[in-house]
Amino acid sequence: QVQLVESGGGLVQAGGSLRLSCAASRRTISTYVMGWFRQAPRKEREFVAAISWSGGRTSYADSVKGRFTISRDNAKNTVYLQMNSLKVEDTGVYYCAVRLGGLSPNVRGYDYWGQGTQVTVSS
Hints:
Blueprint: E1 4-7, E2 10-13, E3 18-24, E4 33-39, E5 46-51, E6 58-60, E7 68-73, E8 78-83, E9 92-99, E10 112-113, E11 117-122
Parallel strand pairs: 2-11
Antiparallel strand pairs: 1-3, 3-8, 4-5, 4-9, 5-6, 7-8, 9-10, 9-11
């Protein structure tokens, strides 16, 4: 069992930045792929970014490439999502999740999820 707690969400103006964190309760998550997803009102949850257990490989949704950066610190059992040049359409609840295996953009491929943190981008 892995418990995940997201933090760092909030209200920001378009063009601004936020840094999300996701702390895992398990003693080590170094063997897990970690991902970030988001869900806007009345929309399905969608993939944002994922990072391999070593941090050597990353994957991003086209909509955030060049603006968001995922990273991890296995010593702290934490994954981060640096979000720059935020747009109104980035608004939503952001979730972190973990899975064994390779990078995946599929929601159903992840085994454990956090409760989410709200990100609101105003125009």
